Amino acid sequence: MLARYHAIEHWTGDTKLQQQLWALAQYHTPDKRAGDYTQAIMDLGATICRRRKPSCLLCPIEENCQAAAKGLTEKLPIAKPKKNIPLKQVTLTLIRNSKGEIFLQKRPPSGVWGGLWSLPEKQSIASELADLAKQPCDTLETILHTFSHFRLEITPEVYQLDTTKAQTLFAVMEASESVWYNINQPAQTLGLAAPIKKLLQQYANTVHL
Ligand code: SF4
Prior knowledge:
- The chain is of the alpha+beta class.
- The protein has seven helices and seven strands, in the order H-H-H-H-E-E-E-H-E-E-E-H-E-H.
- The protein has helices at 2-5, 15-28, 34-47, 66-70, 126-132, 163-172, 194-207; strands spanning 87-96, 102-106, 117-118, 138-139, 143-146, 151-160, 178-181.
- Strands 1, 4, 5 and 6 form a four-stranded mixed beta sheet that branches. A three-stranded antiparallel beta sheet has the order 3-2-7, with no helix packed on it.
- Strand 5 (143-146) and strand 6 form a beta hairpin.
- The longest helix is centred in the N-terminal third of the chain and has 14 residues, at 15-28.
- Bound molecules: iron/sulfur cluster.
- Iron/sulfur cluster binds at residues 1, 4-5, 48-49, 54, 56, 59, 61-62, 65, 67-68, 73.
């Protein structure tokens, strides 16, 4: 609310600004009945000067509010600036066998989704896939997952294998690090990366339509 009252057009989480806001808060706090004042400010913030859509017409301090005077009440307070993090892209494969199970691989212990079960990256199994299924039979909606240092755009492609080809794939990959995953009876113990869980759910919803 202080950011609006003083029309501060910067992100208020900044340390220097926090100090200024603290000084302003102290300046406004009366010597007498400070507790009542603080309670009133909290009530005003909760009911009138809400973070979104403040009710300025009902506000008892509207006359002296700089944001109201400058037409900035909807723009303030300024949100935390977003970090400009790079975007990476990957194509993940949902390879399904004739029973409708999906092929999962365990990720290496370190790195992205370390030790969790995931869908194979198309690039990493390109040669095996080329022999088994030339084209995806379906695609799902692209999803965006944000890590601390980059965003990952995931394009899922669905491939269908017959029994023989599914067995071949399983044999080619290390069986202990691979599994055919039944989306209708998901194994509770299988640790899935969050976006993989989301993709499998998206796939299950599509299949059950
Ligand atoms: S006039 Fe509007 S923006 Fe200013 S303090 Fe009141 S409710 Fe908040």
